[in-house]
Design brief:
By secondary structure, the protein is mainly beta. The chain has no helices and eleven strands. Strands 2, 4, 5, 6, 9, 10 and 11 form a seven-stranded mixed β-sheet that branches.
Length: 119
């Protein structure tokens, strides 16, 4: 199971760092994503990273503000979020790619961590 943490209440313009602990599989063999779901809306893939950490992708609206990273020695995925906006209030999930390499499907999801951006 994936265990996301680090969410909370932050003011607009503030920062948060999310973490996702990933026990139970060979973390270093799989790409990972952060996916969010805002209240009343669908899922939105925020960012992805390949197994080695050398390739990343971002939703256009978060480019330059969010940074995805991973520590394969610690089996942990991160998302540094800066200059947060109220519309980014959502439950943020970490998710494991279904297959090694780059993928758009997932087989394991974390329980989610709530990020609330509000003054």
């Amino acid at each position: 199971q994936l265990q996301a943490s680090g969410g909370g209440l932050v003011q607009p313009g503030g920062s948060l760092r999310l973490s996702c602990a990933a026990p139970g599989f060979t973390f270093s063999s799989y790409g990972m994503s952060w996916v969010r779901q805002a209240p009343g809306k669908g899922f939105e893939r925020v960012s992805s990273i390949n197994s080695g950490g050398g390739s990343t992708s971002y939703l256009d609206s978060v480019k330059g503000r969010f940074t995805i990273s991973r520590d394969n020695a610690k089996n942990t995925l991160y998302l540094q979020m800066n200059s947060l906006k109220p519309e980014e209030t959502a439950v943020y999930y970490c998710a494991k790619f279904l297959t090694p390499g780059w993928d758009t499907e997932y087989d394991y999801w974390g329980q989610g961590t709530l990020v609330t951006v509000s003054s």
